[in-house]
Amino acid sequence: MGFALWQAWLIVNRFTLHDEVAVIAHRGSSLDAPENTLPAIHRALDDGADRVELDVRLTADDQVVLYHDSTLQRLVGDPRRLGELEREALAGFDVGSWFGDAYVGERIPGLDEALAAVRGRSTLMIDLKTDPGREVALVEAVVATLQAEQAERRRCLAEAVNDRTLRGCGDPDLFAETRLATTSPTLARTIRSRHPELRVTLLAQLILPGTLERRSLDALGLRHNRIDEREVGLAGHYGYELHAWTINDRARMSQLIDLGVDAIITDRPALLAELVAERRELGDGALLLIKLRNWLRG
Fold first, then answer.
1. For the chain, which terminus, N or C, has the lower number of CB atoms within 10 Å?
2. 64 three-class SS
């Protein structure tokens, strides 16, 4: 009996009762609107996302647009590579019809449009989808787009006439609130050396022991089934954020919150935002029971 009580005490004391997690909408609310489009962004904002994750690519004329794949085949049936076309040509493609009739005619938006859409309401996580040999060019084009948006926000603040318009201008410290993401440790290091004011999330499928320099990380994004107490402990020890992707199951979301991740990337931001809100309303006893149940399931 004493041993059982001791075990229960150890389990209970592993839990942190007051926990928070950032809600990151994967490609916008991509189960309710076409991925990486303005409707997906607007839906994510309405769903309560703290941050909107978007994929970006570089066009032939060095413009930054929202798109995941290297070619246009999956969404519009065109085998050409996006990077071979200029932004004006890309505007002629319909990337909404595949999703449903309500989105017929939806176009490929630019990063500039996405930044304007979230201004004063949310922030962006910009996932860099690079073409070979154009990695740095994409980073610099993203930075130039951020600088242009920053200038627009400062202009807006200077001309604002009341609190409502002030809020709509967004945070002028755009570089501090924006996150860049990449799967390349080399590109992450390049970004840090060229633009130390930016924060970078390294996205990793699998980490082999001894292969990751954790001391220089701002954030590490891992597939959710690769996250355990050891990874959470390493993140705390080295001082970087831990992001879990991509989770659409409520029970798994709750388990990851209990583990102590800093952010969850999901196609269902409304579900995660609802879960976070519900947990905030619980008393310590009820929350402890949920954590204990999740621990037993794990």
1. N
2. strand
